[in-house]
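Dear support,

I submitted the protein below through the web form. The confirmation email said the job was done, but the results page showed an empty box. After a refresh the structure appeared. I'm attaching both so you can tell me whether what I see now is the final result or a partial one.
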Amino acid sequence: MNGTDLGSVPSGWTYLFLIVAILLALTFEFVNGFHDTANAAATVIYTNTLRPKTAVVWSGFWNWIGVLTSSGMVAYGIVALLPVDLVLHIGSGLGFAMVFSLLLSAILWNVGTWFFGLPASSSHTLIGAILGVGLANSLMGPSHAALSGVNWSKAQEVALGLLISPAVGFCAAAGLLLLAKRLVKEPTLYRAPEGKRPPPWWIRTLLLTTCTGVSFAHGSNDGQKGMGLMVLILVGLLPGTYALNLSAEPHAIHEVASATEKLAASLVPTVAQAALSEDEVSTVLTQPIHRSAETPVRLLAAVQRKSEQVARTLHGIDSLSAIATSQRAQLRRDLYLLSISLKQIEHRALLTDRQALQQVATLRKHIQQMTSYIPGWVKFAVALALGLGTMIGYRRIVVTVGERIGKEHLSYAQGGAAELVAMVTILLADHFGLPVSTTHVLSSGIAGTMAANRSGLQIRTLRNILLAWALTLPVCIFLGALLFAFGMNMVTLLRIQ
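What the results page shows now:
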C-alpha cells in the first residue's frame, strides 16, 4: 500500500500533523507518568517516608534525570517493531496514520486502566498497538497477508522480556525478603506503618534510595518509547534536519563508507549469478516475509547492491551536512534497510567467513551511530512531560499497590524488596535495549513479598490486575488496527480535498 506523500498536501496540513503528532507523543508520556510512575512513589508514600506531594515531585525529578541520561537503545527497539514499509514512508499520510493510531490507542487504554486504579503496562499497551497497526497495514495492502506486516522476530524478543520480567519480579522479591529475614533481625523492618508516623531514619533512607532507583530506571526505559516515535515524526516531516545525525564525526562517516565498500566487494563472488532489478532489491529488503524466506543468494545480492549505493553516496564526505537536503531522507532509508538486512544475515548465519561476519557486525554498529540518535531537545521535552505526569493522578495506583494486593498492609521490608528488584530488573533491560513494564515488575514483586511473608493475597485485586494485563494486548491490537484504518480513510479524504 502506497503512502500519500505529504508533499502533495497543503503545507498547512503538514504543520498541523507535526504539531498534533508531537503533542500526542508528549501526552502519551504525560499519561505514562501518572499511570506508571505512581508505582515508584507508592512505597515511600504508603510507608510515610515522604509526604505524597514531596514523593511525586522527587519521583518526577528522577524520572526526568533518567530520560535525559538514557541511551536511546530502547527507543529504537520499539521502532524496530514497526512495519518496515511504514517506517520508510513515515513522512507520508500512511506513516502519520500509523503514528496517530499508535499513540491514541496507548493513551486511551492507559487512561482507562488508570481510572479504575489498575496497574497496567504502558509498554504492553504500545506494543499491542504496534502489532495492530502492522496487521491492519498488511490486510489493507495488495497482498492482504496479515502476518507479513509485523517484525515477528523482534516482537518475540520484546514479548519474552515482558513475560519473563513479572516472574522475575515475583520470585526475586520473595527471595530477597526471605534472605533479609535471615540476615537482618531488626523487627521494625518487617512491620507495617503505624498511622502517620514516619519510619526510623535508616528505613527511610533505604526506601528513599529504592524509590529513587525505580524512578530513574523508569525514566531511562519508559521515557524512550515516546522519544522513538517523536524522532520518527521529525524524520518524516523535517528530513533535511533530522533524517541523519548531522553531528556525526568524520571518522564515523569514513568507517561506514569503507565498510560498505568492503562488504559490497566481498559479496561479489557469492552473488555473481543473482542479477536483481532495482524493484527486486527493494522488495527483498523491505518486506520481512521476503527477507526471512528469501534464498541466501538473493538476500546477499540485495545487500550487495544497497551497500554499493551507500558507499557511493558517502565517498569522500567528511560531514553529513554536505549531502544535499533532498538526498538525506533517501540515505537514511538505505541505511535503515541495510541495517535490518545485516541483522537478518547474522541471525540466519548466511556468511561463514569469520572476517565477513565481523564486517557485518561493525557496519551495523557504525550505521546506528549515524541514524539511531535522539536530539537533546526531544529528550528534554519527553523528560518534562513524564516528570509532570508523575505529579498528577497518582493516588489511584498508590492505593492499589499499597493496600489492595496483599491482605495485610505493606511492610517496610516488602516495599524495599519489591522496589530494589524492580530497579535492578529495569536497569538490566535498559542495558540490553529491551522495553519492560515497571508496573508488571513492581506489582509482581509486591505480590511475591506477600506470598513469601504468608500475608495472603487479595484474589479480587489480583484477578482484576491479571485481567487488565491479559486484555491489554488484544484490546490495543484492535484499537491500533481500527484507528489505523480510520486514519487511512481520513488521509484519502484530505487528498481528495
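Response: this is the final, complete result; the empty box was a page-load delay. Residues 247-371 form one domain.
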